[in-house]
Design brief:
Length: 198
């Protein structure tokens, strides 16, 4: 089977690290700077960064309509940190532009500011086991305050949901691309391969 192409929105954030992780998993990664490039991709990653800035840039370049259309057609999308915020249907505070893709309510900067960044071992359902948890990197991280019954929470930290999946939409409050552990990217890649296989 031909290697799927995974686009990474390249407006801000850890774009290079996501691309490296995609290639390591055996797929092809491309930076996406303009909406027409979305149509070269079978899956999409929205990376971390500053969510207000990403939201404004995406709106300026015309990304939201294109992404919503592709998601309706079944394209898998993975949002990390700011990408999680962008994919939510509701935010607890603020009025920044969001994509409104997932039935979740999110609190921005819930775990504190940059100086409050931390790492933690997580048990991620369907991905990890107790012998080998996922060492997650949280940087000015959001958390998920509420999920619709159709959303599956995959990981929690301190009683808060920090990773979830709904259909072909995946979000994490932490940065798996900043670790040496590719299990979460492989999980997303399987979602893409299942969609491609039809």
């Amino acid at each position: 089977m031909k290697k799927p192409t995974i686009g990474v929105i390249a407006l801000q954030g850890a774009v290079r690290e996501h691309l490296q992780m995609i290639e390591r998993c055996g797929a092809r990664g491309i930076p996406v700077k303009y909406p027409p490039e979305l149509h070269l991709c079978q899956g999409l990653i929205i990376p971390g960064g500053e969510s207000t800035t990403i939201g404004k840039l995406m709106t300026t370049y015309g990304f939201p309509e294109e992404i919503r259309s592709l998601v309706e057609a079944g394209m898998p999308v993975f949002g990390t940190c700011a990408g999680l915020i962008m994919m939510a249907k509701r935010l607890v505070e603020g009025d920044q532009p969001i994509l409104g893709l997932m039935d979740i309510t999110v609190r921005r900067n819930a775990f504190g500011r940059q100086v409050d960044s931390f790492e933690a071992d997580l048990l991620v359902r369907e991905i990890t086991d107790e012998e080998k948890p996922f060492r997650a990197v949280f940087i000015r991280a959001p958390w998920i305050e509420w999920v619709d019954p159709r959303v599956r929470v995959l990981a929690e930290f301190d009683g808060r949901a920090v990773m979830a999946v709904q259909g072909r939409l995946l979000v994490s409050a932490f940065h798996p691309e900043l670790t040496g552990d590719d299990r979460i990217h492989r999980f997303f890649l399987r979602m893409v391969e299942e969609k491609v296989a039809g």
